[in-house]
Amino acid sequence: MAKVRVGRVGEQIKKELSQLIQTELKDPRIGFITVTGVDLTNDMSQARIYLSVLGSDEQKEETLKALARGKGFLRSELGKRIRFRHTPDLLFKFDSSIEYGSRIESLLTDINGGSVQQ
């Protein structure tokens, strides 16, 4: 029962953070970000936010620094929108699964000689 609640709260955090990052944060270092997932601990004290960032490695690092600076604002806004008793601590991590998937796809395309079969 508790895992269902943690999953629902994680999805709500993902939705609200996506909206907050896109509309409320005004830092120019933040590029195009997609929140790909939220991993919430069972006691909901900590949330790992997985992000996919479009750009070079340098732009990704700048985005991570900008998000670290805005973490307090994001956390307080999240607490207002979802009304937690204790708002979880936010940890931002890069999600490299999209890049990994596109790399595998390009390798498969090269193996097949450029033709994609369905």
TrEMBL record:
One of its GO terms (biological process) is maturation of SSU-rRNA. It comes from the Bacteria. InterPro entries: KH_dom-like_a/b (IPR015946), RbfA (IPR000238), RbfA_dom_sf (IPR023799). It is found in: Cytoplasm. GO terms for cellular component: cytosol. Keywords: Cytoplasm, Ribosome biogenesis. Its main location: cytoplasm. GO terms for molecular function: ribosomal small subunit binding. NCBIfam families: rbfA (TIGR00082). One of several proteins that assist in the late maturation steps of the functional core of the 30S ribosomal subunit. Associates with free 30S ribosomal subunits (but not with 30S subunits that are part of 70S ribosomes or polysomes). Required for efficient processing of 16S rRNA. May interact with the 5'-terminal helix region of 16S rRNA. Belongs to the RbfA family. HAMAP family: RbfA. Monomer. Binds 30S ribosomal subunits, but not 50S ribosomal subunits or 70S ribosomes. This is Ribosome-binding factor A. It comes from Paenibacillus albus. The lineage of its organism: Bacteria, Bacillati, Bacillota, Bacilli, Bacillales.
